[in-house]
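Internal ticket #5521
Category: modeling
Description: The requester needs a full-assembly model to guide mutagenesis choices. All entity lines are attached below as received. Residue total reported by intake: 858.
Assigned to: D.W.
Attached entities:
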Amino acid sequence: MSFLELSHVDKGFGPAADRYEVLDDVNLSIDRNEFVAVIGFSGSGKSTLVSLLAGLLQPDAGEVRMNGEVVTEPGPERGVVFQNYSLLPWLTVASNVELAVKQVFPEMSRTERREHVQHFVDLVSLSGAEHKRPHELSGGMRQRVSLARTLSMRPDLLLLDEPLSALDALTRATLQDELVRLWLEDRRTVVMITNDVDEAVLLADRIVPLTPGPNATLGPDFVVDLERPRDRTTLNYDPAFVRLRNRITNYLVDVNAESRQLRVDRAVQLPDVVPADLTTV
Amino acid sequence: MSTLHEPRDESHDETSSGPATAAEASSEESIALRFKHALLKAIDVTALGFLEPVVRLCYGEEPRVQLRNIARLIVLPTVAFVLFLGVWAVTAPNLRTKYGALPTPSQVWDGWCAIMTFHEREMEKSEAYLAEGPEREAIVAEATARLQLLERASKVANERVATAREREQADKEARLTPLRAELEAFESQLEAETEERFAAVEAMSTTHPADDRAVLVRELAKVAEWTESQEEIVARMKASMKEIEDEKSPALVAALHLQTSVAEEKQFTEKLIQVAGAKSREVKLNALVASIREDQAAHASADPDSAYELAHSIAKDRARLEDVVESTYPRPWTLPMQIVRSILTVFSGFLIGVAIAIPLGILCGLSSTFMAMVTPFIALFKPVSPIVWLLIFWIVVGGVFPDPASSQTLQVLNYLANSVLSVTPYVGSIVDDIDINPAFIASALTVATCSLWATMVNTALGVASVDQDHVNVARVLKLSPYDRLVKIVLPSALPLVFAGMRISLGIGWMVLIAAELLASSEGLGKFTNDMFQNGNTDSFAKIMVMVFVVGVIGLVLDRIMIVFQRLVSFEGSVATV
């Protein structure tokens, strides 16, 4: 049995009369210490999927299981790095991390806790910025804080909800490298949501595409068997990488076209009438 | 605010290693810069934005921009205020009311000086009462010397008033005599002419045919009309004479002013001599001690009959001695004392209001059911006038303390308030007894009731609008309900709570003045009402002084709340100014 399993998960929103089905029959199983990237178009229900995995939302049908147990509520064993950082703006960098540490490891002494916090702040290369508040930091630094906070909880499963999508390209590349470094140092199960194929290929062991919503579901897996560590500078010249990237991109473009064709045409058929020309009467 | 956070370079931030590099670069210049940043931050927190260009100019930063900002933020407002004073000074004397003309700015300033002089004199007297030994004697000696000078000054002033009055009388006489003669001549001529006209009509009645009576009536009406018009002319002449009689020459006004101020000063000095002399605490004590000694001496060698009498009188004197030792000069309430009491009242009311509003607001924000239950009450009670609340509280508090003089609760409250005030710098020296009475409590409760709504609504809004992302963080961390409230909900609601408290304090201050006026609870409201009631020549000016006193204190209270609000605010929170 795999570490994390989604079986026949459905999720929709809205009242019964006007229901919007976001996810329909989603099945996914992830092994321990696997890095899975879920890739999809915006609006396809990626964030809903993360919320389901985290336990922030409950599926309408089917179930999410971790270690064989059904996920019924959120918890620190499934750490989430939110898309918009979700840092508490009135706390400093260290206090933001400490809040999590204090909650998850209440048995730690004060000095142990301080060391623990410092370790994770150092880990995301934020040494020196411990006493700054989020608004004094750049977007990239804020995301690092968010990452440090989540990692400091030592979660069994790390959920990354488009963690880098709000960053500029340069910062994004730096943080991608950082993520890989962290993951290689301390392997654990990661589910990353992204809309960037390159990013997915660079980071993940396996890529699962999410078809466009509504009624989104997961498409066929793409296993990334590129050698680690992967170097972004040389990767572009690696034929295997290029092939894989093209396959995924083509698949996504195809499903998108398919979904457009499948979409029910709700346009109202107008009668073909022309006003009579009264001037000639 | 944006000026504080210099535009950042993202890539630079990624590589910067924080204070370490800053410390390395610290030179004299950077200390100056740091001081500048600290200053600008302080200006930002206190919302004294108009000082910012001054600081920047001192550091030579873009002088042209700063000068333009100084002109905009400091010079122009000052000019506007000066203009306002000018318009006021010019128009005020023309606005005549039943209570005299509207006071000019300089009269209002004089009113302020008079209020403060009164206060200083009362302070001096109460100090003199408690003074002892050579210090007391010095006060008496100094006051006696001053009294002699004042007597001379008073003579001079009286003479001046007399001469000014004489001169004015003569001047008026000179102007009035021709007018009077004119009036007399006119009146006598009028009399003669009236008689003439009536005679003419009478003559007509004999010559005219008897059947045409209407002509006669018409003629008589004409005469009456003419008489009326002539009388009007007489009235006008009399009115202009009266105006001259009522005129007060500036010389006389000045002389009278001098006379009054000298008389006041003299009266005060006489009182001071008494208070520091015969009526001082020391003299009273000495007299009592002497009397006790005498009685004791007599007691030792007295026969049994008078021994009882003497013992009785010794015991009585001893009891009085204790009273005198603790006695102070019975000082009336002066403006600074009333300011202290008003501020204490408004804060008592405000804190009571906040203590009710914040918990209720939190409950409202957390539970929409509770909110729905409370909304009708807010809607119903919020628009009720403070006057209604005051009357209700007046009755209720009166019922709770039927005998305020012997109420232990009030004594405890008084003791607490007086102990706190006595150690407060400056305030301790002006207030001996803040006198917490039912009127104080009713005023404070009125302030609480009228001001709590803003805090309550804002707290509810702040709690209800906690960022969903932060709630998710709390859920992932599995924070307990209490931790969730204390660590997530309250900190993020705090800026709005403080914004609400700021509004509440402003409302409370406005309500308080009216409440004090109506409850005649010692304070600025009562002071204003007293001024209105006593109807002195300068009362109107003193009422206008209150506009500025109340305004300035309200402004300072608002600033204090802004500082608190800024301190709890964070980037992205509602920071209203």
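Resolution: model delivered.
Comment from assignee: The longest helix of chain B spans residues 133-207.
Ticket closed.
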